[in-house]
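Predict structure. Chain length: 384.
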Amino acid sequence: MNFKKTVLFIHRWLGFITGLVVFIVSITGCIFCFQDELQDAMHTWRKVTVQHTVYLQPSALKTIALAKYPGSTANYIYYYGANRPAAVLANIPKKELTYIYLNPYNGHVLHTEALTANFFTVVEYIHLYLLLPPNIGQMVVGVSVIVFVILMITGIILWWPKRKADRKRSLTIKWNGRWRRINYDLHNVLGFYSVSIALLLAITGLAMAFQWVNKGIYTTANLGIKHPDEQVYPISDTLKKTVVSFPAIDKAFNIAESRSPNAEMFLIADADGKQATISITAYAQSLHYGHSDLYFFDRYSGNLLKALPYSQKSAGMKVNDLNYDLHVGQAMGLPGKIIAFLASLICASLPLTGFIVWLGKKRKPKPSPIRAVTHKRTLKQQAK
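Prediction complete.
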């Protein structure tokens, strides 16, 4: 068995093993690419009238949102932007996590939605976990994506033309050929054109699924230089509780707003625990996650414990912050989303076209010995 036959054997059987998962993950990725644009078009509550006044404080939004749900708690509050609603993620007893969307200026409740009631959330869960338990589903998807990266590498080896004269044929689809030839070209040519984007989507997805990939990207982007301060997280001091005139979460939010005056979106995480902190991430652009300032505050006093503005982040941390925006294509705006959509669509097609190629070769009748001898004689006569 020569080298290319070995590669073909590996490519074929790895494709059989992971084809279904790759198809599901790719097709759900296509759907999710434009989820913000589609939801904005479908739901009027996702936009509010901009008012030239300050936002309601986080504690006020939390109180309003939880008023109808006795015993409920909330650890996350979102300010999505000046023309968008705020949201409180409520943990309601005997119910699933629920988003309560409010007007950030007057506190009017605009919409209430259970986490899994949103179509795109379900699509995201399929994309991440195949609707399996998260620890199992994430592993199945992650391993399948790793195998898909190997498939792309072996696919390039198989596609690579031996002669210069074959390059043009390897880069174009013969639309006037028979359907099997068209399918073969769709698998090879489209696979080649999409491989660079597909690799980027796969690696950024793996970085969000596996911590070791995230750390590998971080270390590589930093050229091996360590930044220990980025890995140190402060804690709230339970021995120095101070009495404040207003909620610590409000004080923390006001400080974050003043230190990131141009930020469009804020995520407030008020984790449970005596030593837990209030962390606030200030994002430069609404619904984009690649450019942010990070703050940690004492949960009792609201005092700033640590600030990590974007300008002071290492290259590795900046690259990891971009993972989501790169994964869905929005790092390059609408053109980037279109490219990511098309690349995901091609990735979804590859298991199908590949299976048809295999099926066609398997059913292809072998030439009879007499016909094969006649064909050889004809070739010899043509050579003379």
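Summary: The radius of gyration is 27 Å.
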